Amino acid sequence: MKSVGIIPARYQSSRFPGKPLAEIHGKSMIQRVYEQASKATSLKYVVVATDDQRIFDEVKAFGGEVVMTSADHQSGTDRCLEALEQLDENYDVVVNIQGDEPYIKPDQINLICSCFNQENTEIATLIKLIEDPAVLKDPNKVKVVVDEDDYGIYFSRQCIPHLQKVPEEEWIDHFNFYKHIGMYAYRAATLKEITSLKISRLERAESLEQLRWIENGYRIRTAITEDEALSVDTPQDLEKLNQMKIED
Fold first, then answer.
1. By CB atoms within 10 Å of each CB, which of 68, 89, 99, 172 scores lowest?
2. Pick from 46, 30, 49, 28: which is nearest to 38 by CA?
3. What is the domain class of 3-229 according to CATH?
């Protein structure tokens, strides 16, 4: 099984324009993501997919692989497909690696790739046990319910499930709630299929792309991780990260 890691990296961002080029302890964010992803033994190849010449030039400057893609893509998933179609080799599995997690753990990439050792896996993602009760009420932290076979049944910004006979302040002591970790991997054929789907009702309601796939009959296998990479969404996040002492 050959797996490729694709890092979508666009320049425009409503909260942080030019984020991939932001410097973190002497290196650009995109370089740090690329170097971390390249440590994953499950990936045969890693490439950045961008829509901006400045990011393209930066990746070339540090010796990385990069392809130019359209500026019109609505999601990283769509950008991954265009990048995949530009590669010289064929790959069985595509890992969509977040470009704003400069210290992403290679073991997490290996974990998501291992989901495809099961032949019926179409799409995979990671989840993490919620230990902080505040996360249950945070709409920016996506929650997921899984079935007995570890497939995601539903993803929501609300706390799911609702424990009817338990006080809210005690919920976390009575049920294993899971937070979604936003890394996806897809079989190459499945990636081509899901990018042709129209926006669905549930996706529009929750603004969660994965609900489109579920509504159209695709199953998302989950794997539990204990790690959570530091992400950069705003200039304030960047400032905090640069103040932290982190070993390369």
1. 89
2. 46
3. alpha beta
Confidence of residue 18 (pLDDT cuts 50, 70, 90): confident
Which H or E element spans position 171? Answer: helix 171-174
Tally the residues of the chain: 248
Going by C-alpha positions, the residue among 98, 111, 127, 89 that lies closest to residue 40 is: 111
| Rounded distance between C-alpha atoms, residue 216 and residue 17, angstroms | 33
Q: 120 with 231: CB under 8 angstroms?
A: no
DSSP 192-245: HHHTTSPPPHHHHHHT-THHHHHHTT--EEEEE-S-------SHHHHHHHHHS-
Cα separations (Å) of 64 from 35, 36, 49, 156, 190? Answer: 9, 12, 11, 36, 27
Burial classification of residue 144, based on how many CB atoms lie within 10 Å of its CB (0-12 exposed, 13-18 middle, 19 or more buried): buried
96-114 per-position pLDDT tens digit: 999 889 999 999 999 999 9
Contact 8, 191 (CB under 8 A): no
Over residues 154-166, the mean pLDDT reads: 96
Sign of CA dihedral 184, 190, 192, 195: negative
How far apart CA 173 and CA 88 sit, in angstroms, is 51
Which single residue is written with the structure tokens 């709630």? 177
